Amino acid sequence: MAEAPADIEALIAQFARLPGLGPRSARRLVLHLLRRRSAQMMPLAEALGRVAAAARDCRTCGNVSTAELCPICADPRRDGAEICVVETVADLWAMERSGAFRGRYHVLGGTLSAFEEVTPEALRIPDLVARARAGEVGEVILALNATLEGQTTAHVIAEALADTGVHVSTLARGVPVGGELDYLDEGTIGAALKARRGV
Amino acid sequence: MEWRGEGLLLGLRRHGEGAAIIEVLTPDLGRHAGVVRGGAGRRLAPVLQPGAQLALVWRARLSEHIGTFTVELLRPRIAEALGDRVALQGLGAVCALLLRALPERAPEPGLYAATCALLDALGAPDWPEDYVRWEVDLLGTLGQGLDLGSCAITGATEGLTHVSPRTGRAVRGDAAGGWAERLLPLPGWIAAGGAAGPAGALEAGFALTGHFLGRALASLGGDAALPEARARLVAAALRARG
């Protein structure tokens, strides 16, 4: 039996579908918002409405945006000679948090997967090749996960870019900053050992 | 219900927010699926990579339930494959093919041992040849075994140059006669062991097993197309061979 009016139950059901929330936490959240209707609920509803109406993929890089170009692609201070290829927008945000990269991005929207039948055509690889051919790009940095799918995708991209003349590089693999060898998995230690360099 | 053993991780997909459903190849129960709690989390993600050899404990209330695995890493393989294009595509091809071709919970101790040995040799110069021979063994496991020991027409054991695309039996070149162009070439290195030599001979080996694997997959009632991962391995191996 429903405990609240149908509209509120429907709202709880919508919240319960979000990551990290279940029916109980969704109910608590809605009750919290109902107690702060003007201070929190209305601004949240307005913000959701605005973003839902305006959100789209950047037409150049695939980043989430509210305009035709995302802020990074629209920023003239970003270095257009370097493109960093990432799997998802979450990865792009992680790179931006580091503050270490001043170039532009290309969001693939996934990786090739033998298990889920994702093919190169389903990703934005042709768009990347077109950007590389456009002339301004000097280097493409493949910032893909160190997994079978991520590195398979990296190889496919490297092949697709082979005749564009751009330099293709990939992120290093190994011991993370602050990492202790004792706590690292064997695969990471093995990769770090393989990628060792002179001091 | 509970069993303990080891297995090779073939594939993984997320299940809910933090869990994963993994599929493993075990010696005693064949391809087996189960849920790993926290399998998509930060701690287990590096462990649950395709090709990893795992110590497994599987528990469920009834044997037909999907059940839950607890896992411990015995041997990682992804790191060895990441730096080598052929090894990486090879690891993907082995896992994708086993996921497509094997029935669930059918014991395959021989195939398990052969697959572990194949993956242990990842990165070796003649690994693509080992892979083709492993596919010949896999065809036998799938009930589509090739008979490459003697000629289907004369019974001769020497000079075998072709394979019937219908029966999978070897044929001597001089016995094939006018049918030769309808038969598949049989590269000598498959039975003789060792390296294939030029890329063309290696390609003929891939074509031979690919033909019969396609038939085997079609006989399972699904799509006859081989996994994309295998096509990527073939391309990478032939490119590496020049």
Descriptive notes:
The complex is a heterodimer of chains A (199) and B (242). With 199 residues, chain A is of the alpha/beta class. Chain A has 8 helices and 6 strands. In chain A, a hairpin with a 6-residue loop joins strand 1 (56-57) and strand 2 (64-65). In chain A, helix 1 (6-16) packs across helix 2. Chain A is globular. Chain A starts with 5 loop residues before the first helix and ends in a 5-residue tail after the last helix. Chain B folds into 2 domains: 2-75, OB fold (Dihydrolipoamide Acetyltransferase, E2P) (Beta Barrel), CATH 2.40.50; 80-148 and 186-241, no CATH class. Chain B contains 8 helices and 8 strands, in the order βββββααααββαβααα. In chain B, helix 3 runs antiparallel to helix 4 (127-141) and helix 4 runs parallel beside helix 7. The interface between A and B is medium-sized, with 24 and 32 residues.
Strand order of the largest sheet of chain A: 4-3-5-6
Low-pLDDT segments of chain A: none
Mean pLDDT of chain B: 91
- Strand tally of chain A is 6
Approximate strand percentage of chain B: 15-25%
Count, helices of chain A: 8
- The H/E string of chain B reads EEEEEHHHHEEHEHHH
Adjacency order of strands in the biggest sheet of chain B:
3-2-1-4-5
Please tell me what the overall shape of chain B is: elongated
Structural class of chain A: alpha/beta
* Mean of residue pLDDT values of chain A: 90
CATH topology of the largest domain in chain A: Dna Topoisomerase Vi A Subunit, Chain: A, domain 2
CATH architecture of the largest domain in chain A: 3-Layer(aba) Sandwich
Distance between the termini of chain A: 69 Å
| Share of helix of chain A, binned | 40-55%
